[in-house]
Structures are given as structure tokens and as C-alpha cells.
Design brief:
190 residues, 6 helices, three-stranded mixed beta sheet, 8 strands, alpha/beta
């Protein structure tokens, strides 16, 4: 699958005119809403408010990936923004990913961190719509077993400094867990 299969032209914002990462994310959310890809804009904004900034990750110095799971969308929705200069001293590229909880496999495939082709400075970069998912995915991914304790999984994610991990059962993907998911469960048990 190519990145172009996940993006529509109305959800590609170039240049992304944002002074902060949060402002850039809001511009991308607005693009998804304007493109008719969000069934419940109020629900999406509520999810973002509850999850911010836990459900975000950096893909090296060049890209930032806010990602959210919510029933406010019917399927995986993405938006891409590329700024002319680093946003707030950070990345130039932002990729927003929103998916319903039931689409955990597609969501995981979309948020798996990896290397992102460099934008600017180092020669010609591929056009974002021509970039393949395999060019942005991680080859080595930290996984947790579905029978691991919440405390052990939280410790492992903290130790490896990752925000999320695929969950496997007998070596087969069965879900995704984030630091925020684990922290909520640990707090509920107190």
C-alpha cells in the first residue's frame, strides 16, 4: 500500500502554515473535517483534548505523528502537512492519523514508527504522495504479549522509551497498547 492510498489531495497541506505543533495538528484536523472524513468533529476534538499530548510521537527530527483512536471516524483517516521551515524548532512534516478502535490492525500499520525520508537539505526528497509505507515503517518493532502484566508492559515501554507497542498472541498481532492506555489501567487499580 502506498501513502497516496491513505491520503486525498484535500488532506495534504503544503505549505503547512503553523507556529506550533498543536496549531499544525489543528490545521490537519480541519482538513480532515472539510474533506468529509470525520463523522463526529466534536467527538474527535474531545478525544484529542483527552489524549493530548500522550498520543503523539516523533519520527526522528523531521516528522511528528499525532495519532488518535476514536469512533469519530469510520475508517483510518490521515492528513499530511509539510512546512517550509521547522515548526517551533522541531519537524517540518506532520502526519495525522485517526482510526476507530475496531481498526486496530490498520491503525498499527499506520503508526508503526520508522525512518522517514528527509525533507529538504539533503537533496531531492520523494514527493509525499509517492512515498511508500515500507519507506516509513520500522523494521524492528518492540512487541508485548497479551498475557504480560500491565505493570511489566508499562515498565518495558518506559525502559525502551517508546509510546506504543503492538500486542501479540502466539506471535500473531491482536492489538496495540500505548503508554497512556497502560497508565490509565495502573491508575484505575489504585
Amino acid at each position: 500500500m502506498r501513502l497516496a492510498d491513505l491520503l486525498g489531495p484535500r488532506r495534504v497541506v503544503v505549505p503547512l502554515l503553523a507556529a506550533t505543533l498543536e496549531e499544525g495538528m489543528r490545521i490537519l484536523v480541519d482538513a480532515c473535517v472539510a474533506d468529509g472524513r470525520v463523522a463526529d468533529a466534536v467527538g474527535l476534538n474531545e478525544t484529542i483534548r483527552e489524549s493530548w499530548p500522550e498520543d503523539t510521537m516523533s519520527l526522528g527530527p523531521h516528522a511528528w505523528l499525532p495519532h488518535f483512536r476514536t469512533d469519530a471516524v469510520d475508517g483510518v483517516v490521515t492528513a499530511l502537512g509539510i512546512a517550509e521551515a521547522p515548526i517551533a524548532g522541531g519537524p517540518r512534516m506532520m502526519l495525522l492519523i485517526v482510526a476507530p478502535p475496531r481498526a486496530h490492525v490498520a491503525y498499527l500499520q499506520a503508526v508503526a514508527p520508522g525512518s522517514v525520508p528527509r525533507v529538504g537539505g539533503g537533496g531531492a526528497a520523494p514527493h509525499p504522495l509517492a512515498m511508500l509505507v515500507r519507506d516509513a515503517m520500522a523494521r524492528k518493532v518492540l512487541c508485548v504479549s497479551d498475557d504480560e502484566t500491565v505493570a511489566d508492559a508499562a515498565h518495558l515501554l518506559a525502559l525502551k522509551d517508546v509510546d506504543s507497542a503492538p500486542v501479540v498472541q502466539d506471535g500473531v498481532l491482536c492489538g496495540l497498547v500505548t503508554r497512556a492506555d497502560l497508565a490509565r489501567r495502573l491508575l484505575e487499580r489504585r
